[in-house]
# Entry
Amino acid sequence: MTAYRAPLDDMMFAATELAGLESLARLPAFAEATPDLVAAALEEAGKIGANVLAPLNEIGDRQHSVLENGQVRTPEGFKAAWTQFRDGGWGSLPFEPDYGGQGLPWLVAVAVQEIIGAANMSFSLCPLLTQGTVELLSAHGSPEQKALYLPNLISGEWTGTMNLTEPQAGSDLAQVRAKAVKDGHAWKITGQKIFITYGEHDLADNIVHFVLARAPDAPAGVKGISLFIVPKFLPDAAGKPGARNDLRCVSLERKLGINASPTAVMAFGDNGGATGYLVGEANRGLEYMFTMMNNARLAVGVQGVAIAEAAYQHALAYAKERVQSKPVTRPEGGPATIIHHPDVRRMLMTMKARAEAARGLAYYTAAAIDSARHHPDAASRRQFQSVVDLLIPVVKGWCSEAGIANADLGIQIHGGMGFIEESGAPQFWRDARITAIYEGTNGIQANDLVGRKVARDNGASATAFIAHMRATLAELDRAPGESLAVVGRALKDALAALSETTDWILEVHGRDPAATAAGSKAYLDLWGISAGGWQMARAALAATRELGANRGHPKFLSAKLATARFFAEQILVKARAYQAMATAGAQAVMALDEDQF
# Structure
């Protein structure tokens, strides 16, 4: 498998030119997050990605995690890698210094997540879930819970999980049956949970499970679900792992990909009840868990960026080495490496453009989270939060599918060898495929975008953000060069399609929700290519400014401009097709009776 190397220049370009790192550094909370410091941090993260985690990626895929006598053994090298990751403080970047965090922006943490995920997606899931539990507990835990659990979770001495899904419930959490019975100051938890990522493993001293369960007198449905901390080992008086709690890993799922990540079926309370501690107020568990889920949805979108980049690097290296056929560009010569064939170039450019657009969108959203939390002006915080709420389902849905699509194209570039496991290309696709499913399927993200993020506020947030993107059109009109003119025309048409489709949704949703639901996925894709195209346009403008001022590396910057034009001509032009699909209504989708399938 081709060695992964973090694309540090691309990452810093996205962080500074698209996400506004320098503006974040002017906020009091992030005064130390200068571009020089962030560049140094990413360089070090790139080393652990390339030298420690990437070499374990194929090993983990081949060996899997294994359940033996109730204990899970992770693949060769994973435990040592976790120790190095933990000791380097890589899981603590965005969290409060009061609990051992480094107080850096989420933008920086997201960039590091990309590196870790690209190097070894299976490994990256453990810190991903742990960071989500820190977010949840920071927002909703009691002072005592924070003091006990946050330092251990932030340091990586302990890891965290989220336990939502049950066999009969799937994504319908109203059907959760796990029970919680009051027992003095604690609760006794009984029930079974499935699809629990790193639910059992040998990396850390303790595993802190966050479990949704229902008290006997709780209301039916989602309004009766509470959230509990259920540690594998109950902390003793000194806050160290003590007695084993009444929970166990029943089995590990056999999966399509992410084989090194142990996906556990967890049983709670086989011997009377696992001890759990209520988080916040009873019956508000799902509300609290969404704090964690939104964090995880952004992280899944970043996994899409990571796989998009890793698959691109792998395919590019193969295309530069594989000799086959005479290229039409120079038929008088002999066979050449396949990167000289226009169709292979088309695929490589598609992969490059998708990865860069997805990175720009994910980083922009992470920076908006930082501003929503730390901007000194309350009105600005609310405005940034509205952007975050709007873009989270887009980042999760569109960026995850960018990773899957790039992995698929990577297989195609390899030709027949891409279907052979030894080439390394299939693992990217197998690992990426789950990203469209977990943390809420992309269909759920699309319904969330339409129903909660657009219709609920009568399109105010969506309309405002479309107007914000349109402001870039004037700058494109003033900029020199044919490429920027092409980008400007494509972006203008895409934003018109997005605006018109948004208006249609606002008109139709209240009286015919099936019509908007049938087209919601196309609407999410329209948002993805439009917002991604906007980021590419901004990248092209920034590259043009730098070239005009004789700053930066000319080849790097001219590649940015060329890639933005490619995105405009080959991807952004699909906006009108997505508009047609999004506004077609439900007649064709729902035309058949159940027995006609």
Q: What stands out?
A: The CA atoms of residues 519 and 582 lie 4 Å apart. Residues 285-321 form the longest helix (37 residues). The chain has a mean pLDDT of 97.
